[in-house]
């Protein structure tokens, strides 16, 4: 009897962990996010106010322009065009989003994490060197060189990156298991926080001279 009880508890625990691994399941067919919160017919669900279903049109489920290249003229040589609930209200409560990533030659999408979503990436053009690092204490690095048509997955919350190792522009599309997966770029968060992290903390954490830390904080 006790063994059966423990098995039942284990199964419920497993089911709960799977159910809570992504955005909450919607309780209705759709919930198109409202940008104008003054609408008295709005209902607050899953982080956004819902548009009255009677007022929803096909355009609420449409996003155009992903064929347009992003501007990669910046320090890292890449540009991410997000298609999430903030830019595409029809995604609200559906638990998915995507992004177009453009890379200049040798550009990179620097080490970052998505705290609320797993990412699956497909290369449309070019050659990318990608990878992710597992959590403490192993900190194991997994890397792969991807060519056109190749697919790679980055588990939720893990630090990962993509680098264009080719002499031409590269394009990738990423799907994410959240309507708003979030993004934390490691260098920006650590050295560019507002207000800044005390340099003494970073000096010890990274085993760097304080002058180096202060220089990096000015850069970010």
TrEMBL record:
It comes from the Eukaryota. Oxalate binds at residues 109, 114, 119. Residues 66-214 form the Cupin type-1 domain. Residues 1-21 form the signal peptide. GO terms for molecular function: manganese ion binding. Mn(2+) binds at residues 112, 114, 119, 160. Coiled coil: none annotated. Its main location: secreted. Keywords: Apoplast, Disulfide bond, Glycoprotein, Manganese, Metal-binding, Secreted, Signal. Pfam families: Cupin_1. It is found in: Secreted, Extracellular space, Apoplast. The keyword Secreted applies. Gene3D superfamilies: Jelly Rolls. One of its GO terms (cellular component) is apoplast. Disulfide bonds join 31-50. Belongs to the germin family. May play a role in plant defense. Probably has no oxalate oxidase activity even if the active site is conserved. This is Germin-like protein.
């Amino acid at each position: 009897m006790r063994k059966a009880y423990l098995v039942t508890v284990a199964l419920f625990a497993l089911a709960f962990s799977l159910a809570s691994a992504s955005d909450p399941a919607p309780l209705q067919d759709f919930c198109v996010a409202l940008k104008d919160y003054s609408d008295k017919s709005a209902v607050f669900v899953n982080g956004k106010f819902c548009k009255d279903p009677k007022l929803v049109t096909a355009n609420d489920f449409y996003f155009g322009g992903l064929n347009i290249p992003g501007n990669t003229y910046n320090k890292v040589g890449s540009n991410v065009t997000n298609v999430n609930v903030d830019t595409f209200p029809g995604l609200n409560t559906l638990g998915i989003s995507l992004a177009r990533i453009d890379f200049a030659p040798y550009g990179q999408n620097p080490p970052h994490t998505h705290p609320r979503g797993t990412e699956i990436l497909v290369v449309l053009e070019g050659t990318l060197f990608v990878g992710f690092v597992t959590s403490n204490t192993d900190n194991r690095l997994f890397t792969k060189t991807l060519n056109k048509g190749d697919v790679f997955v980055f588990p939720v919350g893990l630090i990962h990156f993509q680098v264009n190792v080719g002499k031409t522009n590269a394009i990738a599309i990423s799907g994410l298991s959240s309507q708003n997966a979030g993004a934390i770029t490691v260098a920006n968060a650590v050295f560019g926080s507002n207000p800044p992290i005390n340099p003494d903390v970073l000096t010890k954490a990274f085993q760097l001279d304080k002058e180096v830390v202060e220089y990096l904080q000015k850069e970010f």
